[in-house]
Write a structure and sequence with these properties.
- This protein has about 200 residues and is of the alpha/beta class.
- It has five helices and four strands.
- The chain has a four-stranded parallel sheet, sandwiched between helices.
- Strand 1, helix 2 and strand 2 form a beta-alpha-beta unit.
- Helix 1 packs parallel to helix 2 and helix 2 runs parallel beside helix 3.
- The radius of gyration is 18 Å and the shape is globular.
Amino acid sequence: MDVRDARAVSRLFDEVWSQMGVVDVLVNAAGLYPSHPLLDMSEQAWDRVFDTNLKGPHLCVQSFARKLVAAETPGVVVNISSGAAKRARRGAAHYCASKAGLSMLTCSQALELARQGIRVNAVAPGYVEVHSTVNPISEQYAQAVADTVPLGRVGKPQDIANAVLFLCSEQASWISGSVLAVDGGASAGSLGLPFSGS
């Protein structure tokens, strides 16, 4: 299913509801992480990233929320943002900007859907080792990132899944509009700098 296509998204939710009944959890995890230097970035590359990483979650939440409101049922959304929403990277202007937008979209969705009983939060992963063939990462890049993680290791998919599970659970029933950093402490600051004192 192409998350960039409003009709395809709507059809998917119709099919899911017809086969499974009411579904009350949505995790928006589709995303692209290409590398394009700013001066060489095409308009098509920019649009593809934004349409997937930002328009897609908007369309999915819109269709999902319409179904829940019609069924008078509460629900939970978790958007997968990124540490790149707050920390720019060379070759990833489109990615960083799209994830910054997704973090704010999460807040807007949470605000608009709160009175309908729909909580919306996001998880912002740091570097997670996934061995993607869609978004390949060089070994040099992976090692450079791993060296900056305060907790001393890169993330695993289960680290992100655990955070998503928490935000979907009753334990998080009073949390909405939040972006949870799951990054081994990387967003706390720069580990690579020496002590400033003598």
